């Protein structure tokens, strides 16, 4: 087993592999950083040495297992968090194996660690009457009234991720006859999302104020300091503007309305409007259609319409219990002849 230290290859993993080869965005790199920081601190504690003295030989399959166990038992992390951190460690160990062949055996064993099964998280969304109540209660007067109204309508219109909204610049907007916005999403991918005329009008009003300079690289949504709103800043605005909306989970506990809940709302309302599922996938920037399909699962109104479409036979109160093909003599005769 190699006695090389961890530092050089860790720097190469972040600076070359994640940033250059994979092209990960800053938020993704930070996620990897947080996981590996926790893991290396854990390994240093278990090895009784400083983190700067750790060798590659200290990064073992057994340490990964102990780390995952510690996440659940000591840090009380959710299984989904445990699985996400396992995914990061798999990526890191695969990179180790590509750079240091003697780490291949450990990387293979880490790759074989199974993800724990966990039920999918509950997906909540705002009903249409809740959306109307929300925008009816927003103030029209005040220093930030226009910005907040535009921000919330933009979230509902586009279904954009909160980081995508934070990254929107004036140059990404086209507010002409066919208004649209270019969103920079996960995996360094761009997509175009159409804007309602009302959204475009609010954006034009927002950009015409003295709060925003008319330069392509200037942020659309700014803070009181003139800087782009951060993810946490957007989250606080959404929380503050939706205090009057009482939303509860299935267990009756209060549900905090977040920017991502607007994303779920957009998806469900597009589905209810009859928009094709592949269009919704492109609208939201989903890589896999499976991610988009889950919105069809949670929409009870769509299921009710499907039930109404399956009308029971006259004189019956449910689905037919006897398959209709059993009454078709020609079909039965053909089957018997096989």
Set down the secondary structure blueprint.
Elements: H1 6-21, H2 26-47, H3 61-73, H4 79-99, H5 104-111, H6 128-137, H7 145-158, H8 162-166, E1 173-174, E2 180-184, E3 190-194, H9 197-207, H10 231-241, H11 259-272, H12 277-284, H13 289-298, H14 300-309, H15 329-336
Antiparallel strand pairs: 1-2, 2-3
Helix pairs in contact: 3-4, 4-5, 7-9, 7-11, 12-13
| Coarse morphology | globular
Strand order of the largest sheet: 1-2-3
Measured distance between first and last alpha carbons: 65 Å
Mean pLDDT: 86
Radius of gyration: 26 Å
- Please count the helical segments: 15
Tell me the structural class. Answer: mainly alpha
SSE arrangement, N to C: HHHHHHHHEEEHHHHHHH
Number of strands: 3
- Percent of residues in helices: 40-55%
- Which regions have little confidence, pLDDT < 50, spanning 5+ residues? 314-325
Question: What does this protein structure show overall?
Answer:
By secondary structure, this protein is mainly alpha-helical. The protein is 54% helix and 4% strand. It contains 15 helices and 3 strands. A hairpin with a 5-residue loop joins strand 2 and strand 3. It is globular. Residues 314-325 have low confidence and may be disordered.
Q: Brief description of this entry?
A:
The chain has 338 residues and is mostly helical. Strand 1 and strand 2 form a beta hairpin.
Keywords summarizing the entry:
globular, three-stranded antiparallel β-sheet, 338 residues, 54% helix
């Amino acid at each position: 087993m190699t006695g090389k230290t961890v530092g050089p290859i860790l720097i190469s993993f972040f600076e070359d592999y994640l940033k250059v080869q994979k092209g990960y965005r800053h938020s993704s790199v930070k996620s990897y950083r947080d996981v590996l920081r926790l893991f290396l601190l854990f390994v240093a504690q278990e090895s009784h040495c400083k983190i700067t003295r750790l060798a590659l030989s200290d990064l073992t399959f057994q340490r990964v297992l102990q780390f995952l166990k510690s996440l659940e038992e000591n840090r009380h992390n959710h299984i989904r968090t445990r699985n996400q951190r396992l995914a990061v460690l798999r990526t890191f160990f695969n990179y180790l194996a590509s750079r240091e062949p003697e780490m291949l055996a450990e990387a293979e064993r880490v790759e074989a660690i199974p993800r724990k099964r966990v039920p999918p998280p509950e997906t909540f969304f705002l009903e249409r009457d809740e959306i109307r109540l929300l925008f009816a209660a927003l103030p029209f007067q005040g220093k930030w009234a226009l910005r907040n109204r535009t921000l919330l309508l933009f979230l509902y219109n586009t279904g954009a991720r909160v980081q995508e909204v934070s990254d929107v610049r004036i140059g990404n907007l086209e507010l002409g006859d066919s208004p649209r916005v270019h969103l920079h999403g996960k995996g360094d991918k761009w997509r175009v999302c159409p804007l309602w005329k009302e959204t475009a009008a609010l954006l034009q009003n927002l950009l015409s104020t003295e709060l925003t300079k008319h330069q392509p690289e200037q942020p659309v949504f700014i803070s009181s300091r003139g800087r782009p709103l951060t993810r946490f800043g957007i989250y606080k605005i959404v929380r503050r503007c939706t205090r009057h909306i009482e939303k509860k989970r299935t267990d009756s506990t209060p549900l905090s309305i977040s920017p991502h809940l607007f994303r779920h709302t957009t998806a469900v309302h597009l589905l209810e409007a009859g928009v094709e599922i592949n269009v919704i996938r492109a609208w939201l920037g989903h890589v896999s259609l499976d991610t988009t399909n889950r919105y069809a699962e949670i929409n009870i109104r769509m299921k009710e319409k499907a039930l109404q479409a399956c009308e029971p036979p006259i004189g019956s109160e449910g689905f037919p219990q006897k398959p209709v093909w059993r009454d078709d003599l020609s079909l039965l005769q053909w089957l018997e002849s096989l």
